[in-house]
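Exam revision sheet. Question 4 asks you to relate a sequence to its structure. Input first:
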Amino acid sequence: MTSLTIPAEWLIPHKFPNQWIFQCSISLRNLVLTNRAGQFFRQLVTFLEQVHQLIDYHLELQYNPQRNNELDVWICFGKPHRASKPTLTPVCISCELTHELSMTTLLSEQEYTRAWLDATARAMLILTPIRHVERLSELTDENGEMEAFWYDAIKLIDRECNQLEICYRAIVLNHGTYRNHSHLHLKIKVTDDTWNRIIAPRHREKIQKINQLLQKSSVIEDCFGPRYYKRLTKSKIPDEKLHSSNQDAKV
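Answer key, structure tokens:
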């Protein structure tokens, strides 16, 4: 098997109502280390979007403990959270690095990506392309952008989770009407233990600053839009609390 070979069975979904599951006989880490992540996800999004015309969907990566922690890819569709795409906000916090919320949440910048803390202080890490793209399929292969996206995701996990083998519950990419923000976000939902023991203490000052910024209505309106204003102002996080609970609300 060459480094770019993707077995055909990895792209044959197990079909259930409103969800498909793709199973790889390899972990996400090994998919990246064998230089096959870019090729696999390119074929996957082509299968979803061009062959089956799936535009609005939730993509979730999970360990499968019954298969040696090999990669499962869940695609959920048919039940969007809203009828339209997210509206553009005055500030794209993934692009406008001079905004105070962007400066506070930014962890690192690579050639093609940026890594962040979650902008609402939830227990997750965020990876975004530097280019303002809305879909995974918009990343390019020719310059290595797609491959780098997944390589940088693994590097971010290793760096922030101290190279723990099992440190996240799921990795999520939302598309179309499943999104709340237009800029593509890879959300790494870390375990509570990893967050509380490792990440939150390391970034204590940043998290406190995020919570302080979320008290400002101007920040919420500029960065999240009117749709989020009521939700965030109803559930403000106390400044002394380092993190919010692991909610599945999508940002």
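Marking note for examiners. The chain has one domain: 8-251.
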